[in-house]
Amino acid sequence: xxxxxxxxxxxxxxxxxxxxxxxxxxxxxxxxxxxxxxxxxxxxxxxxxxxxxxxxxxxxxxxxxxxxxxxxxxxxxxxxxxxxxxxxxxxxxxxxxxxxxxxxxxxxxxxxxxxxxxxxxxxxxxxxxxxxxxxxxxxxxxxxxxxxxxxxxxxxxxxxxxxxxxxxxxxxxxxxxxxxxxxxxxxxxxxxxxxxxxxxxxxxxxxxxxxxxxxxxxxxxxxxxxxxxxxxxxxxxxxxxxxxxxxxxxxxxxxxxxxxxxxxxxxxxxxxxxxxxxxxxxxxxxxxxxxxxxxxxxxxxxxxxxxxxxxxxxxxxxxxxxxxxxxxxxxxxxxxxxxxxxx
Length: 343
Ligand code: SAH
Ligand code: SF4
Prior knowledge:
Blueprint: H1 2-11, H2 16-23, H3 29-42, E1 45-48, E2 50-55, H4 81-93, E3 98-103, H5 113-125, E4 130-134, H6 140-149, E5 153-155, H7 163-169, H8 176-189, E6 192-199, H9 206-219, E7 223-228, H10 245-258, H11 268-273, H12 277-283, E8 288-289, H13 296-299, H14 315-328, E9 332-334
Helix pairs in contact: 2-9, 3-10, 6-8
Bound molecules: S-adenosyl-L-homocysteine (SAH) and iron/sulfur cluster (SF4).
């Protein structure tokens, strides 16, 4: 396996069959090399993103997600602008210089105006912080207006780069073509862009993951969000099994070697699959964590999947726990925006 890892380091790309071998390898060399490259690029610093789950209303019906429109058991909420700014202030005090506003595709934000006001308020109050949006598909003009209002980055996972697989995860109204178009629009506008996929989503094969890697190569994003699929009992996939941890870790390692400077989170889903999942992710090349700074109150209601961690904590609890976890593996949270390092 060593020769394939060395080839990936040199060429930053592999043939499909070679990727497939690496996806399932148990040779520790892959992860060791990915961890080395992470340290070469970022030292012992881990970038933190304060995550604010600001609305769980969603008009979409993705089959995997607990926030889907058809889930009548989901107790809906939407944070006020003041609550969001308060969360930012708590995150700022904890040293976070990036705020991620994540939510369902909430019809309240169909028109741009309330979102623009929100972004502008954060921009004015926290001028030294990056603003990341993770709010789904919108028009080019809407993305552009959000960028002009002060948003810096956008996370929109492509979920799978295979059309047929995409159609098995989403209702007809949603298409991979549109998802990809959104990602290219965001790039063109100038956002730092993150795509990504779940590992082990229903009907996913290793070939699909290879297609994901090829799509990532083509899009050339600044970030990739990649965690295991976890079932949510109130969705059509409630009885499916969770994604495989080993493959998830190998994907993280492959991504680090494909794109050494990539901002690559050790996801909450990985930490939900296993208690030290995020630490394992970092040891396999991830360099970002996303501590939750949402008010405790709403956390239980923002259930993309069952068993989400940290739902009884407040921002400070989450922050202290995260800092301790990082210390245990010889890392520390960087107090900076953690922008993509060009070059
Ligand atoms: N509505 C926005 C942002 C919120 S969902 C959007 O869809 O982009 C953010 C991410 O959570 C999704 O992209 C998906 O990859 C992930 N997610 C949703 N349900 C999940 C599940 N059951 N297991 C693991 N990840 C899930
Ligand atoms: Fe809505 Fe995002 Fe969940 Fe799909 S994944 S149902 S768009 S919150």
